[in-house]
Each structure stands twice: as structure tokens, then as C-alpha cells.
Predict the 3D structure of the following.
Amino acid sequence: MPSSTHIISFCQSLLRTHEYEDHCHNGVQVPGKTEVFRIALGVSASKAFLQEASHWNADLCLVHHGLIFGTIDRIDDILAGRLRILLEKNIGLAGFHLPLDAHELVGNNIAIAELLGLENIEKCDIGWIGDLSQKMEFPAFIRLVEESLGTKAPFAENFGTAFVQRVAIISGGASDYSQYAMSLGADTFVFGELKESAYHHLKERGLNFVAGGHFATERLGIQRLGEVLQKNFPDVEIRFFDEEVEI
Ligand SMILES: [Zn+2]
């Protein structure tokens, strides 16, 4: 069976993690078993995910939101609880954050752009901007986003044009990027999580938006990474563990 080191360096080279400055370490966050039979995939290293992975006897967890963001000066009760689950069974964990948003094949944002059927796409920070092949009324566009993400969008507002054509997509907590999205000519901005202050900026700029949910806009990348891993490591059992998270 492949080693954990081999699998993680495969991910790092596929995602070109060295190109990113990130507040989440893109690689091993908790060392575990050397040999890997089972990989559990998840969006966030939540206690619920780690418990399911542990019950399934995963050897390695791969997540988009790792255990540690920024620098820490102590292990609090939440982190201790999560670490305990991993350390009890010697399960390793690696996180892949911004590189997994931005990647041109397996990234969260390219997955959404493809599902929305955007054409002429160009890079837009860690996301993409592109055009719908045909203009669409805003309510129909909300339905398209919801069908693509497989969930109800927590917030959406028709602050700008009645029809949607040019769409910017940045997954996760990107609601502050309205000025940037407009500077690229977007009439509609799809992101994950809405901040209250950003809501007013979107309104005052007259930019349509669909906040699809942080979790929902970041479920696809880790699953795509899993598909690539399955092709390259066919003997390893790989499973995505979903969670009901509506923000
Ligand atoms: Zn995120």
C-alpha cells in the first residue's frame, strides 16, 4: 500500500501548494500511520467528521479546512478533542486550503464554474469569472446555483441587473470581494458566506449576489481531489464524509 508521505506529496505537487501564502498549512498537520489503506475526505476537520473517519478506520484524513489556522499559542478544548480522536488511533491528517479553492482542475471554484456552464472563464483571485451562454433572469440563476451545489442558498439578492450574464465565483468567505468582482465586469457574484458589512457594500454597489454557503461552495474540490487520488492509488479505499452544514 502507498505511504502517507507519497500520497501527501502527490497532492502537494498536483495542487502546487508551494505557490501559495496561506494561513492554513497545506500539507501534514498531524502525522499518523506510514501505510495508508483508507483515506477519509471531508470539508472541515470538525469533531463529527473526525469521529466518522475514526469509526470507518481511516488511516489518513484529507480536508479543506484543517485543524490549525494561523499561529496558536495553546491547544484549547476544541482542538484537544479533535486531536484526541486522531491520536487515539494514530490517524494522520493533512489540509489543503487555498490551493484547493484555486486549482484549475480539482478546485472548488472551477467545479462550480463548470456546473453553472460558464464560458470564456478567466482567473479571479482564487476563483473564476465567466459568462453564461445566455442571459438568465435572477430567480432562475438562483435555482441554477442551488441545483449545482445541491443545497438551498442561504442568501441571494437582486441588487443589480434583472438578468445575469457575467458571473464571478469565489468560494467560502469571499463576500468582501464585491469591488474586485465589479472591476472585472461581473453583474453577479457567487460566493459562500455573507458578512453583514459586505451585504451593505453589495447593495450600495448594485451587485447581484448568491451566497451559496461556505460549506456548500467548498464540498466539491475535496471530492474531485479524491477522484484523482483514486485513479492514481487504485488500491486505497477513499470515501467522502458529508455533513449537514447550512452556513
Ligand atoms: Zn473555506
Q: What stands out?
A: The first helix runs from residue 4 to 15. The mean pLDDT is 97. The pocket of zinc ion is lined by residues 65, 172, 214, 218 (CB under 6 Å).
